[in-house]
Amino acid sequence: MNTSKPQVTFVVGEDRRLCEIISRTEIEPLLRSLVKAGPAWAAVLDEERLPLCRLGDDRPFEQLVEIHHKLLVEGEPQGMLVIAFDPATCGAAEPLALLARDALQLTVTNNLKRMLTTEMHTSVVQESYDQLVETNRCLEESEKRYRELALQLEQKVEERTAELQKAYSRMLQQEKLAAVGSLAAGMAHEINNPNGFVRSNLTTLRKYVDRMKEMLNHYQLMITANTPLQQLHEETEQLRRTLKLDVIFLDTAALLEQSIEGTDRIARIVADLKAFSHVDERGDSDADLNMELKRVLAVLESQIPPETVIVQELQPLSLVGCNPGLLSQAFLNVIQNAIQSRSEGLHLKLSSECKDNEIVIRIADNGCGIAAANITRVFEPFFTTREVGCGTGMGLTVAREIVRGIGGSIEIDSLEGSGTTVTIRVPLGKNNDMRQKR
Predict the structure, then answer these.
(1) What's the predicted TM-score (pTM) here?
(2) Interval 235-269: pLDDT, tens
(3) CATH 2.60.40.2150 describes domain 18-126
(4) Distances in Å between the alpha carbon of 68 and those of 42, 79, 80?
């Protein structure tokens, strides 16, 4: 290896202050909800005890009791959550403080991981092959560090589970928001993949353009100098071979085609997510539940194991008056459970029909199934049979609450080792049966 060539050093994962990792716009909604729950005021301080965000009233200090919880960045204290409350009026301050601290800590950890991933991606694109080998080693070490941090976080979450049950009613709403956030994060990852190779292709194309400009400039200089035709031909042909323009012309078309495919992929992902979230709609509207099921499958495409067989037996349905975004979230939680039930050879069947003035949706899989001892507990908050960190145990709870909210019901039929069938029943309104989908 030629050690005399210039080396470029990229600094990835440099120390970050808390204010660089988490913003006021991320902190403020949590503190606002926290203050509404009882505490007089709440604040997040940085490593120098300066407030990043503070919400609440300013009652005299001697009337309040403060709770302090540290916020960690890569295992080191970099800030603090402070909650002030009146013991006479707020008896659940400690569980609320722990819940808020864990939510803030999870946001800080995820934001830091995303920042490091972005920095690492930028450096990898620009490095040479030899530098990539070294970067790969650094990535493995970084991944090990974050696995250890994730394990520590999972252990803390497990220790606080009993206390979080006291805040169950608030947790239901937070879980709905967290599910949307997790989906958005997954979609962002899906967008980053095509965006990464489009940027790489454009960088390469820029180098190709520079070589073509060099060839044109050289040709123009020789023409201006009245170079003899034979010499002109020989020198331009030599430069053409040196610049490898034949290879560039062949590769340019492929680069452009790949970039177009990448941008089309991004547009398709955004369209699927927009349709799923119903961002342009407010409140209740007439929804085609078949279409909502298809949209959920589209946004979960990246999570579906390879070679999965998906069967859709969707009969024409009447439109249902509901909040489509919420009902789609219920479908999402159920289908995600089915996808995660088996890593290989998964068979997923979705069926729908109108029967007895109601719509019946069935989602069946051939996954691991549910043990008889656990079948009565699947809707309990925080109950999960997965390993710590692989599930919150709130997915089916939230799905049930959403379906019940429109007067429907959800049932589970499962046999351990043979699969699971989830049946969702949605009642038809008085006018729904007059609007049959064609």
Answers:
(1) 0.44
(2) 888 888 888 888 888 888 888 888 888 787 776 66
(3) no
(4) 10, 10, 7
